[in-house]
C-alpha cells in the first residue's frame, strides 16, 4: 500500500508545511487528546493551531451542527436571511465594545484580514498601511504584503504600501532592557518617526496582533497599543486588532487580546477558536467603516448556517464554562512551570505569553543566538513522549503552547513533566 505521505507529496504543494520527520495523521479526538492512524494517543497542546478552542468531541457543538444538518440546509448564501448568522453577529457586536458595530463573516482569518484592509483603504482613500515587525496576518495577496516575517512573505508584490514599526517582539527589540514604560515611549517615538519619514501622512490603518502568533507568541508590554492609538487618532488613522489567535478569552485576562492595552479598536478580525474546527472568521467594525463600500458584495460561504450555529454553540460554551478564567488560572501555572525549567536549562532564552498562549524561545547557551535545531528536537521529543506542541517564531526557534481552553490541572502537570524531559533531552540540562 502506498504511504499517505508519498501520496501527499505527489499531489499537494511542496511549500505546504508538515510537522515531524515522520508526519502524523490524526484520525480521532476526544477532550484534549487525539489519536493517530497507528493508534497512538497524544495530549494536544496546539489545538489545530489554536482552532480547537474547546477540544474534541464536544457534545454541545456537535448537537447544534447535527440539528442544522437535519434541516437539509448546509448552505443558502448571504442573498437570503440566515437567522443564526444574525444572532451570532448581534452577540459579537455586543461583545466587541465597538460603538455601532457591524459584523461581516468570512471563512478564515486570512479572509477577515483581507476584508479589514479593503475597508480601511476604502474608508481612508489610501493604500498606506502600518504593520508590526515580526507580524503575520494570512496567506492572501494583501495579508502577505503586510506580514513582517520573511519566512512567510512569499512575494514582494502587494496592493498596499506597508511601513513597519517596532514593538511587538520585545525579546529581540533594539529597545530590549528598557522598563515597560520606557519601552513603550521608545516605540511611540519610532511610530512618529515612521509616519514622518516613510509615509505621505494619509495612512489608512495600523494592523497589529496583541500577541504575535506565527511570530512565536511574542508579547508586548500592556498599554503599548493604547499609546499607539493616541498617535493614530491624531492623524485619523484606523486601528485594526487582529484577534484571530488572541480572541474568545484565550489570553485569560481579557476576552479580546487588545483588552490589555486599554483601547477599543476601530475594527477587530477573528476566526480560529470561534468555530472549534468549523470554517468561520470575520470582521467587527464601526458601522460607518463597515458601510463604506460603494459596490455590491456577498460572502458565498461566510456565515453559512452550519458554521454559525456551531459558532454560537462554541461561544455559549466558552461563557457558560468560564473558560477565560480557566485560561487565566492554568496559564499562570504553565508560565511559572516553564520559567522554573528555564532557570536550569540555558537553552531556554525566553518564556512569554498570556493565558493559554505561551511561547518558549530557544537559544544557544551563553547568548541570544537562535537555536532552531533545539526547537525542532523538542518538537520531536515531545511527540515521542505523547505531547503535541507547535513551533514558530522569526527564526523558527520557538515552541508554541496553546492547548484547548478546557484543559485540566492534571493535564497541565502531565504536559509540564513531558516538556521538562523533552527540553533536557534536546540540548538542555542532562
Automatic annotation (TrEMBL):
Arranged from A to Z, the UniProt key words for this protein are:
Aminotransferase, Pyridoxal phosphate, Transferase
Cell cycle as a keyword? Answer: no
Q: Which cofactor does it need?
A: pyridoxal 5'-phosphate
Q: Which residues form a coiled coil?
A: none
- What's the superkingdom here? Bacteria
Pfam families, alphabetized? Aminotran_3 (PF00202)
* Class of the enzyme per the UniProt entry, highest EC level: transferase
Q: Which Gene3D superfamilies match?
A: Aspartate Aminotransferase, domain 1, Type I PLP-dependent aspartate aminotransferase-like (Major domain)
Give the Enzyme Commission number: 2.6.1.44
One GO MF term on file is: transaminase activity
Q: How does it assemble?
A: Homotetramer.
| Family the entry assigns | Belongs to the class-III pyridoxal-phosphate-dependent aminotransferase family.
Q: What is this protein called?
A: alanine--glyoxylate transaminase
UniProt source species: Actinophytocola glycyrrhizae
Amino acid at each position: 500500500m502506498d504511504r499517505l505521505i508519498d501520496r501527499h507529496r505527489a499531489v499537494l504543494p511542496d511549500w505546504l508545511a508538515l510537522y515531524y520527520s515522520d508526519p502524523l495523521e490524526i484520525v480521532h479526538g476526544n477532550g484534549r487528546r487525539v489519536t493517530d492512524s497507528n493508534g497512538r494517543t497524544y495530549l494536544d497542546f496546539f489545538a489545530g493551531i489554536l482552532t480547537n478552542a474547546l477540544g474534541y468531541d464536544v457534545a454541545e457543538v456537535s448537537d447544534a451542527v447535527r440539528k442544522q444538518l437535519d434541516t437539509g440546509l448546509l448552505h443558502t448564501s448571504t442573498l437570503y436571511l440566515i437567522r443564526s448568522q444574525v444572532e451570532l453577529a448581534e452577540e459579537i457586536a455586543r461583545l466587541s465594545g465597538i460603538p455601532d458595530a457591524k459584523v461581516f463573516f468570512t471563512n478564515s482569518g486570512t479572509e477577515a484580514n483581507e476584508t479589514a484592509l479593503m475597508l480601511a483603504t476604502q474608508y481612508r482613500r489610501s493604500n498606506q498601511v502600518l504593520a508590526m515587525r515580526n507580524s503575520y496576518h494570512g496567506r492572501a495577496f494583501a495579508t502577505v504584503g503586510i506580514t513582517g516575517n520573511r519566512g512567510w512573505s512569499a512575494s514582494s508584490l502587494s496592493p498596499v504600501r506597508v511601513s513597519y514599526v517596532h514593538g511587538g517582539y520585545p525579546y529581540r527589540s533594539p529597545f530590549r532592557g528598557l522598563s515597560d514604560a520606557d519601552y513603550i515611549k521608545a516605540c511611540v517615538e519610532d511610530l512618529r518617526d515612521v509616519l514622518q519619514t516613510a509615509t505621505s501622512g494619509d495612512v489608512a490603518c495600523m494592523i497589529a496582533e496583541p500577541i504575535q502568533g506565527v511570530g512565536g507568541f511574542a508579547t508586548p508590554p500592556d498599554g503599548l497599543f493604547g499609546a499607539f492609538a493616541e498617535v493614530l487618532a491624531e492623524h485619523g488613522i484606523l486601528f485594526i486588532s487582529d484577534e484571530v489567535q488572541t480572541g474568545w478569552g484565550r489570553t485569560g485576562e481579557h476576552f479580546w487580546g487588545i483588552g490589555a492595552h486599554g483601547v477599543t479598536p476601530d475594527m477587530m478580525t477573528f476566526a480560529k477558536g470561534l468555530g472549534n474546527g468549523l470554517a468561520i472568521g470575520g470582521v467587527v467594525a464601526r458601522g460607518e467603516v463597515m458601510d463604506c463600500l460603494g459596490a455590491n458584495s456577498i460572502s458565498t460561504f461566510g456565515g453559512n448556517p452550519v458554521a454559525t450555529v456551531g459558532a454560537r454553540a462554541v461561544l455559549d460554551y466558552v461563557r457558560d464554562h468560564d473558560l477565560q478564567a480557566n485560561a487565566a488560572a492554568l496559564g499562570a501555572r504553565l508560565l511559572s512551570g516553564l520559567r522554573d525549567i528555564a532557570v536550569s536549562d540555558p537553552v531556554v532564552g525566553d518564556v512569554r505569553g498570556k493565558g493559554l498562549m505561551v511561547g518558549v524561545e530557544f537559544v544557544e547557551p551563553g547568548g541570544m543566538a537562535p537555536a532552531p535545531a533545539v526547537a525542532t528536537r523538542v518538537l520531536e521529543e515531545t511527540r515521542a513522549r505523547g505531547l503535541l506542541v507547535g513551533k514558530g517564531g522569526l527564526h523558527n526557534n520557538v515552541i508554541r503552547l496553546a492547548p484547548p481552553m478546557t484543559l485540566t490541572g492534571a493535564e497541565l502537570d502531565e504536559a509540564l513533566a513531558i516538556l521538562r524531559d523533552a527540553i533536557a533531552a534536546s540540548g538542555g540540562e542532562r
